[in-house]
Amino acid sequence: ETGVTQSPTHLIKTRGQQVTLRCSSQSGHNTVSWYQQALGQGPQFIFQYYREEENGRGNFPPRFSGLQFPNYSSELNVNALELDDSALYLCASSFSQNTEAFFGQGTRLTVV
Amino acid sequence: GIQVEQSPPDLILQEGANSTLRCNFSDSVNNLQWFHQNPWGQLINLFYIPSGTKQNGRLSATTVATERYSLLYISSSQTTDSGVYFCAVFTDKLIFGTGTRLQVFP
Questions:
Q1: CA A84 from centroid of its chain's CA atoms
Q2: Dist. CA A80–CA A91, nearest whole Å
Q3: Over the stretch B39-59, which tens digit does the pLDDT of each residue have?
Q4: From residue B25, how far is each of A28, A96, B12, B65 by CA, in Å?
Q5: Which is nearest to B78 in space by CA: B3, B18, B36, B6?
């Protein structure tokens, strides 16, 4: 059984660019959530996908968008990158909504 | 929205000491998890504990949902226990607490 994997692990982008982060959910899990963790803070909920539908969204602007695919893997897209988007982006998968969440190793995004 | 507060914010221990980390939440929750975040950012699952007590080696956790708190006990701490400990509660999403940064020195 494979765990949650994220790619890439590190990324440097320029302000105004667009970025796509990827997450493969744990085998048997149909729910994926994305979180942003700024330096020294706790992770903040961005949104959740359940069976390919967005199922809850945190306080993030529309330039943060996502997708979930039929195999339950997921993408996080961020348009028009800002310096404050620099953070660790974490993906979590779970068997269903509100069950135990398992996290990937994260993608560290730096916007310059 | 629900508030999740952890205490203490920082903890410095010598190897072998015991410690108790606390997580208070302001409203009813469906479930609760404890995580250890290592220096590389990986969140390691420690406990999934909506209520009651669980033990895993030197670690144990207790959640009293009716009183809206959870405790994480670390006994005989080791340098590898260093890192940040988060509790997170389920409402319609997972909400993380403020974290406790633990440093264990030899």
A1: 16
A2: 21
A3: 889 999 999 999 999 999 999
A4: 31, 23, 24, 9
A5: B18
